[in-house]
Specification:
about 280 residues, 2 domains
Amino acid sequence: MIDAVVIQPGIETGEPSVAGVSWPAVTAGAVVSCALTLVLIAFGLGLGLSVVSPWDGAGVSASTFKIGTGLYLVVIAMLSSSIGGYIAGRLRTRWTGVHSDEVYFRDTAHGFIAWALASVLGAVLLASPASSLIGGGSSAAVQGAASASRSGGAMDGYVDTLLRADTPAAQQNNANESRGELARLFVSSFRNDSEFKPADREYVSKVVAARTGLSQADADKRVNEVVTQAKSDIDAARKATAQLAFWLTASLLIGAFCASLAATEGGGLRDGTWKTRNRR
């Protein structure tokens, strides 16, 4: 028969009473990391506006700007995450009676948790202005619903190109109606499969010919050119968004690694064991 072991209060069990996670240190590191990120983003915005120029031949190219933006996001993640992780490791409570390997793991976890909290705080801070803009613009959206039904928004430029007349006499009285109809066709087509249906394309060509005074062949040519340009612009926007997503993912992963590594350094300096760890 095995007797049950009863642990009396006050008896040492070998497990330290200090919590494994020092939340004040983690929070401090996350707040510092988030603040540095916002400062560096603001500096990057100013730097970007200074190198981009609307004039041909001035400023950097679009490819250089995109690559520079991606690299700058990585630099931001490395700097802010490293400093935040170091603070989280350096300010945490000393763990007495804990094995050195466990201490090393806890320091790494402190840096990772600080990075995760900073990422969540950053996402909330960036989402708040967007929510305010959406909420503030709701009334304007209601007032502009009537005009929006007659406008294609981002497709207005393509419709302008389609309906540009060579002579003012070619303009018709139903200009607004035809513009709204073509804009809706553009939006619907590019939302679905980025291509006009044959019937829609034929109809658009007839409207363009009637509005602009072009021959049917020239109207067909103009429609093809505008549709090709619209598809090219949409593809470019999609690629740019995908590239930005990849750069953001890379910066987040690098930031997590830097925060974890810096926290181990901060914790080692806190306990005076950093040189001992490096000799392993």
